[in-house]
Structure formats: structure tokens, C-alpha cells
Specification:
2 domains; Rossmann fold; four-stranded antiparallel sheet; single chain
């Protein structure tokens, strides 16, 4: 990229508005992604994530607002700018008639016209995703995890500076998921800026430097995972194994100021706490003062999933 634009963010979206008839899909949506980061974009179904990405990529028109990539305005005809962008879609997008190597070569050719220039790029992409032993296989012969890795290779073969990953680990086994996440971290270490969407919160917390949560077409929270956890009331979850919890003791625990919710199934007591410094000690004080015997006890800090549910609600979305 032009050295004069080195200080510009990789992506800057300002006040984007997109409507479908009377429905507002993006409501003055803002987003800024710094160069060299892995940026997590989260939101429930229908929050506007896919619409935002499609507008950023100039695949959708929008009513107002601006999109700038590496300091340049993004338009449908910004072909040079688009050559610096890679997209790995949620739905695998490859040609069943072509084998692994041919698929990667085809998608690379959209950005690198000369076959001689593509040869090393295709080989590097095959090596990067570990498909060397499958280069002559057609997609129909690949497992779900290998197919996902082919999907990634097709999106990154031209070595883009900005890469969008949309749910890249859906329906893959743990080994494939781990390989994909490690691959994304390697791409980032090599200089790529990554925008990552997923419904697997543990993945986002593992690899993303900053995370945005959006809903109803606008940003509702932004920060590191720890910063987001500090924005909500949710605190730790205390779990206690006990078989002799009396109703009077349970009532005392429910009356604690820290307790957001308390559940007991006859074997396990689970307390979801508000943020506080002495939650575990307060629970233990009640158990010991009532001479309640207990076994295994754990305290789990709030997760990104807890934050997500508190900010976006727990109702199901279509």
C-alpha cells in the first residue's frame, strides 16, 4: 500500500445507513479497524453484520455514510483497492468441477492475472492450509474441515492486506477448528489485518484484539474482552456441589446482594453473581454458618458469552 497512507486505519466506516423498505438494517453504523489487529464483529442474527460487511465490500449500495479502506473511499469500481482485500465467506464458495489446486488458482486469478505470477502464490496457499496431499481432490471428496481450509485458501491466495472471515469454523471438528484459528493468527502475525465474525465466543475471546458487539444496525459496545466484561453487571459464576442444602440456607443465599440468580437441582448449587470483590467468600460464609457440607467448589469469571447475552438479550432471533 502507498506509504503516505500508512497511518490510516485499515477500515473506517462512518454513519452508514442502509434500508430495506421501511426496515433500517444499518442505523448510522460506525466501525474502525486498526492496521494489524484481529477485530471481532459480533451480533445476534438480524443485527446487521452481514449487511455491514456487504456494504463495506461495495456489494450493496447504501443510503448515506462513507467506507474508507486504507485511506481510500471504497466504491463498486475500486478494483485496485479490492485486490488488497480477501473474503472467506460462511458458506463454502468453491467449484465442484475443479480440484483443490485449480480452485485456488482460479480465485487467485481474479486478482493476479498472469499464471506465472500465481504459481508460487497458489503453492504457498496450499502449504498454508495443509492441503498438499489433497491438491488433486475435488471438493466433493473432502471432509468438512478440509473443505473449510480450501475455502480459506481461495480467499487468501492473493495475499491480501485485509481479510474478512465470516463464521469460518462452522460445523467442523475441534482439530480443524484449532488449525483454522492457528492459521488466522499466523496470517495476522505476517501482517494481515483481520475482521472476524463468529457465534463461538471462546474463539473470539482467544484471537481478537478488540471486539465490537452490534445490534439493531448499530454499535452497542466496543473494547477488549476484559473491557467489555467491565461494562456489564455480570460477575463470576459460583458452583457448589452439595447434597444437604436446606431451604432456609437457599433463601439466605438468594438474599445476598451479590446474587443475580440462584439455581439448585438437589446436587449442584449455581449462583450467577453481580460484579464484586468478595462473592465467593460471601457464599462460603452462608454455607459454613449454616453448617452445610459441600464438595467440589468452583468460581468462573464472567465470559464474553455472558456479556453478549446481557447486552443483546436472551430471546431467540430468526
Amino acid at each position: 500500500m502507498n506509504s503516505s497512507r500508512e497511518q490510516e486505519p485499515a477500515l473506517k466506516v462512518n454513519a452508514l445507513v442502509k434500508r430495506y423498505g421501511d426496515m433500517v438494517a444499518l442505523d448510522h453504523f460506525d466501525m474502525e479497524v486498526n492496521r494489524g489487529e484481529v477485530f471481532g464483529l459480533l451480533g445476534p442474527n438480524g443485527s446487521g453484520k452481514s449487511t455491514a460487511i456487504n456494504c463495506i465490500l461495495a456489494l450493496l449500495s447504501f443510503e448515506s455514510g462513507t467506507v474508507r479502506v486504507f485511506g481510500q473511499e471504497m466504491t463498486p469500481t475500486s478494483y485496485d483497492l479490492k485486490s488488497h482485500i480477501g473474503v472467506v465467506p460462511q458458506n463454502v464458495a468453491v467449484f465442484n468441477e475443479l480440484n483443490v489446486q485449480e480452485n485456488i488458482d482460479y480465485f487467485c486469478s481474479l486478482y493476479v492475472p498472469k499464471k506465472a505470477d500465481r504459481k508460487d502464490l497458489v503453492e504457498q496457499a496450499i502449504d498454508f492450509v495443509g492441503l498438499g496431499d489433497f491438491r488433486r481432490f475435488r471438493p466433493g471428496k473432502l471432509s468438512g474441515g478440509l473443505l473449510r481450509r480450501l475455502n480459506i485458501a481461495c480467499g487468501i491466495a492473493h495475499q491480501p492486506d485485509l481479510i474478512f472471515f465470516d463464521e469460518p469454523t462452522v460445523a467442523v471438528d475441534p482439530q480443524s477448528r484449532n488449525a483454522i484459528l492457528e492459521g488466522i493468527e499466523r496470517l495476522n502475525a505476517q501482517g494481515a489485518t483481520v475482521v472476524y465474525t463468529s457465534h463461538y465466543m471462546e474463539e473470539v475471546e482467544q484471537i481478537c484484539t478488540r471486539i465490537m458487539i452490534m445490534d439493531h444496525g448499530r454499535q452497542i459496545a466496543l473494547g477488549t474482552a476484559e473491557e467489555l466484561k467491565g461494562m456489564v453487571q455480570a460477575g463470576e459464576q459460583v458452583t457448589v456441589e452439595t447434597l444437604d442444602l436446606k431451604e432456609s440456607t437457599l433463601a439466605k443465599i438468594r438474599a445476598l446482594p451479590l446474587a443475580q440468580s440462584v439455581d439448585y437441582d438437589g446436587k449442584e448449587l449455581v449462583i450467577h453473581c453481580r460484579q464484586g470483590e468478595h462473592n465467593l467468600q460471601d457464599v462460603l460464609t452462608v454455607l459454613e454458618s449454616t453448617q452445610t457440607s459441600y464438595g467440589h467448589l468452583t468460581s468462573r469469571p464472567p465470559s464474553l458469552n455472558d456479556v453478549f447475552l446481557e447486552l443483546t438479550g436472551k430471546e431467540l432471533r430468526d
